[in-house]
Amino acid sequence: MTDFFNDIPQIRYEGPDTDNEFAFRHYNPDEMVMGKRMEDHLRLAVAYWHSFAWEGGDPFGGRTFDRPWFGDTMDHAKIKADAAFELFGILGQPFFCFHDVDVRPEFDSLADNISALDEIADYFGGKMEQTGTKLLWGTANLFSHRRFMSGAATNPDPDVFAWSAATIKGCLDATHRLGGANYVMWGGREGYETLLNTDLGREAEQMARMLSMVIDYKHKIGFKGQILIEPKPQEPTKHQYDFDVATCYGFLKRFGLEDEVRLNIEQGHAILAGHSFEHELALAASLGMLGSIDMNRNDYQSGWDTDQFPNNTPEVALAYYEVLRAGGFTTGGTNFDAKLRRQSLDPEDLVLAHVGGMDVCARGLKAAAAMIEDGTLEAWRAERYAGWDTDSARQMLQSDLASIDKRVRDEDLRPEPRSGRQERLENIVNRFV
Fold first, then answer.
1. Are 64 and 162 members of one domain?
2. What is its EC number (predicted)?
3. What average pLDDT does the segment 209-232 reach?
4. What is the four-CA torsion angle of 426, 247, 152, 115, rounded to 10 degrees?
5. Are residues 403 and 296 in the same domain?
6. Which of 154, 306, 317, 337 could pair covalently with 203 via S-S, beta carbons 3.0-4.6 A apart?
7. Which listed residue (26, 41, 50, 99) is catalytic?
8. Which of 348, 374, 400 is the last residue of a domain?
9. What is the per-residue pLDDT across 4-51, written as a single tens digit (0 to 9) for each?
């Protein structure tokens, strides 16, 4: 136990009229939504890195936070774990996520790193058994250390590829041992800064080979979780190979890996790629690739990934609308890949940031479910494409240009445009959000 969260009560649902800031107004884990508990729909997770490893720096300034677990020893790592599980308990969060470097000190040798990860995983295991908190996913940080400045799987140095592969093995072993529901491959520096020193073909082959090795090893050890990759555009490199959903799917199809991998999609990354979050979710669902989500937001006046807690209910509602249309999460969930602002120094800030985010997700989920149960949007969508459900339209898709040309001439077809009803549909959405 630590005293970091002293005097902060466990957060409970009190309803929308409460004036208690240390209470949920909308997140009621046992509330039934479309025949399923809200907690089981959302599958909320705390991001270990932003909540416990991040020190409050930004591109122009260093650490602003003062935490008792900041340090490079195993004792510090265990104090951090104690505080993390205290936060999970305060919030009632069912899941958490981590990178290896979030939870252990960094050593010079791979063997020491893996040994430290195994030790802290055992420590996690005891706490998970005591609290019932589960692991949504684990992953390896292959981007922060200077050895990864030119990528991990795509690095021109084969020794860095080897170090990366061995690190992933250790992280996947730990995730498997902890009963993780997923394992994420996030290529933070799998890209390039200039084409003058880059072999695109070689790097794509290396990236695919690494992913294939991970898939093979997953099956070898009997890991039942889902392998996820996370689309990310540009930042920090000029171009990332996993730019967006479409790019990731093209990569997976090219190398025949699409049946083994799903996508972990982040709101902030979608915006940086020039898309909306709901676009990326809808596209992934249409391709059968939707796995899990990172819920955050960007500051739309900033040009980088600011990882702020969600506070825009209409945006979140449209995101969960696509998740629910796709059938909801299976192994995936909602990870708060979000961090405090560097001026938000207090333990209360960390708790209340999650409280607000959880309430926004709950409101968004309920609005999305209400839209689906109302059925108007889907009815109008079906009506718009109804012509394609006729026998003649189906036959046309199996036909050829000459036959279609003959039909148009014989029937003297003169199609007129029909309204897309965009504003009317937006008005319908606004009834619910």
1. yes
2. 5.3.1.5
3. 98
4. 60
5. no
6. 154
7. 99
8. 374
9. 999 999 999 999 999 999 999 999 999 999 999 999 999 999 999 999
Question: Same domain for 156 and 194?
Answer: yes
As a whole number, the mean pLDDT across the chain is 97
Residues 353 and 420 in one domain: no
Structural domains counted in the chain: 2
Look at residue 387 in the predicted model and tell me its pLDDT. 96
The three-state secondary structure class of 319 is helix
- Structural tokens at position 129: 């058994």
Give the model's pLDDT for residue 430: 97
DSSP designation for 297: B
For the question of residue 102 being annotated catalytic, the response is yes
Strands 239-240 and 290-294: unpaired
CA quadruple 39, 22, 135, 321: dihedral, nearest 10: 40
Active-site option among 102, 173, 242, 359 = 102
Closest by CA to 67, choosing from 54, 48, 58, is 54
Whether 361 maps to a domain, the answer reads yes
Tell whether 348 is covered by a domain. Answer: yes
Over residues 252-273, mean pLDDT: 97
- 314 token code pair: 């209409």
Could you tell me which residues are annotated as the binding site? 230, 266, 269, 294, 305, 307, 337
Dihedral class, residue 257 (left if φ above 0, else alpha if ψ from -120 to 50, else beta):
alpha
Whole-number Å distance between alpha carbons of 222 and 190: 28
Q: What per-residue confidence (pLDDT) applies to 139?
A: 98
Instruction: List residues forming the annotated binding site for Mg(2+).
Output: 230, 266, 269, 294, 305, 307, 337
pTM beyond cutoff 0.90: yes
Task: Verify that 294 and 337 share a domain, yes or no.
Answer: yes
Residue 350 shares a structural domain with residue 319: yes
